[in-house]
Amino acid sequence: MTWQHLKAVILLPFMVVVVIPTIILHFTGLGGMAVQRPAPWNVLLLIGAGVLLSIGLLLFATTVALFARIGRGTLAPWNPPQHLVIVGPYRHIRNPMISGGLFILLAEALFFGAPPLWGLLAVFFVLNLIYIPLVEEPGLEKRFGEEYIRYKQHVPRWIPRLTAYSPK
Known about the structure:
Blueprint: H1 3-11, H2 13-28, H3 39-69, H4 96-112, H5 115-144, H6 146-154
Helix pairs in contact: 2-4, 2-5, 3-4, 4-5
């Protein structure tokens, strides 16, 4: 991973899924341990949180690698991909990187059972509901033109399509 990629990861998603939740847990006094629940629920929630965390990390790692290898850029707006990435999870959903972040935040909220983490998850989702269609997508249309417009018509923003999109 180059310094540009590492800097982008540290300044953006790392802050959202690690630093901010840690600060929230610290200042709310909920950071010592997961909330105590009856034993069967603990196991189910722990397994669920582990699965969600794994999915989130896999989506995130895959998309960052694709941005570097295929897009020739980073996830950061100051060094965006130079080529439109329509491979891997991008063939099913337009925002797998944000989906990965949502999965990670959901895993943290489930594991800790902390209401402020549910709030962070909601705020992150709402901000992306606003930012993506108003800022990100118009910018992508400008940069990639008809190729992105066709992609956008065939691949949903949030709910993955079952069959992989093929731009041909």
